[in-house]
Design brief:
Number of domains: 2
Low-confidence stretches: 312-344
Bound molecules: flavin-adenine dinucleotide
CATH superfamily of the largest domain: FAD/NAD(P)-binding domain
Largest sheet: 7 strands, mixed
CATH topology of the largest domain: FAD/NAD(P)-binding domain
Strand content: 25-35%
Shape: elongated
Mean pLDDT: 89
Number of strands: 21
């Protein structure tokens, strides 16, 4: 352990929640430190068009996130290219250790580590993400107006996505690898009654097909789980709806979670079960999972984490517990607005 520094507010994660928290905390003169993690910019960097970020009719996901990073840095947040590997919330100040060997102590921690959609793991699916393959109907359904769509999955999410996508699609085919759905009965009833939804039972998708350059999805190839017979289903959009996993490993056993690992917060706030620790964005949200809701929670977390709203908390000034020189080495350095070099 070569490096130890103290910060009043440590933000973990660089998606919309983390960067918004950084903007608010920096403007509150809390000199926040934000650790970006393995995916600087978060989930939106994996998509192309975003059409529901207020103020932008069209924006590319990676561009939007680069702007958020620039905004947070311009307000004075220190943005660090590193990954938190261990977090100790049992003592004060809180302690975070990182991949580069740095050690941070913090009066308050804002967790914004997001969530990950579960994917099928097919090479064609990976290649076509953002070009017709999506895991978010709310985000991308609008792009498939008047087209045929495939939804993959059998739980509540899959059925809800299929029903929602009928607002745009001429036909929705739900493909499920079993002969019955796990979704709630009322959702199943709606699904079966819908004239534009068809279910392909007992099939697993083995390939997403495409044509052109840049590629556009043309459909899927699905194999019957017992006979092995392959069926081709035409579609311009493929929505994988087999679940989400919150990135809550760092706080497992330290914070209360629910709904399969989402960090539990007090209703109407971002306060977790440990005072001084706040959680925002997809990490806490198994319902909305949007950039704008995550950003909103990031704002709330910075306000909740402000000493003014934490009566009794020591208003410590940032203090460096290690010599300044070398503290940004080995990946744990603040990065410039345009600097992408040295990212983990
Ligand atoms: C393909 C796709 C398209 C989407 N399209 C839209 C859209 O059009 N509109 C919309 O509103 N929403 C869209 N979404 C959803 C949106 O991206 C998410 O709701 C949003 O990004 C969640 O923000 P977040 O800040 O909570 O976390 P995330 O964006 O998930 O970011 C999490 C951050 O935490 C960091 N992190 C994780 N673990 C650690 C660690 N140990 N140490 C340090 N950092 C860590 C990661 O590096 C990452 O930076 C889309 C999602 C996907 C996957």
């Amino acid at each position: 352990m070569t490096d130890s520094r103290h910060t009043r507010v440590l933000i973990i994660g660089s998606g919309p929640a983390g960067y918004t928290a950084a903007v608010y905390a920096a403007r509150a003169m809390l000199a926040p430190v934000l650790i970006q993690g393995l995916q600087p910019g978060g989930q939106l960097t994996t998509t192309t068009e975003v059409e529901n970020w207020p103020g932008d009719t069209h924006v590319q996901g990676p561009d939007l996130m680069a702007r958020m990073e620039a905004h947070a840095a311009a307000m004075g947040a220190e943005i660090v290219s590193d990954i938190v590997t261990r977090l100790d919330l049992s003592r004060r100040p809180f302690v975070a250790e990182t991949d580069s060997g740095a050690r941070w102590t913090a009066d308050a921690v804002i967790l914004a580590t997001g969530a990950r959609a579960k994917w099928l793991g097919l090479p064609s699916e990976e290649r076509l993400k953002g070009f017709g393959v999506s895991a978010c109907a709310t985000c991308d359904g609008f792009f498939y107006r008047g087209q045929e769509i495939v939804v993959i999955g059998g739980g509540n999410t899959a059925v809800e996505e299929a029903l929602f996508l009928t607002n745009f699609a001429t036909k929705v085919t739900l493909i499920h690898r079993r002969d019955s759905l796990r979704a709630e009965k009322i959702l199943q009833d709606r699904l079966f009654r819908h004239p534009r939804i068809e279910v392909l039972w007992d099939h697993e998708v083995i390939e997403v097909t495409s044509a052109g350059e840049p590629p556009g999805v043309t459909g899927v190839r699905a194999r019957h789980v017992r006979t092995g017979a392959v069926t081709e289903v035409p579609a311009r959009g493929v929505f994988v709806a087999i679940g989400h996993a919150p990135a809550s490993e760092l706080v497992q056993g330290q914070l209360e979670t629910h709904h399969g690992g989402y960090v539990k917060v007090e209703p109407g706030s971002t306060r977790t079960s440990v005072p001084g620790v706040f959680a925002a964005g997809d990490l806490t949200d198994h319902v909305y999972r949007q950039a704008v809701t995550s950003a909103g929670m990031g704002c709330m977390a910075a306000l909740d984490g402000s000493p003014r709203r934490r009566p009794g908390r020591a208003r410590r000034q940032n203090r460096a517990a290690a010599p300044q020189h070398g503290r940004h080495s080995a990946g744990a350095r603040p990065i410039g607005l345009n600097s992408r070099a040295g990212r983990v």
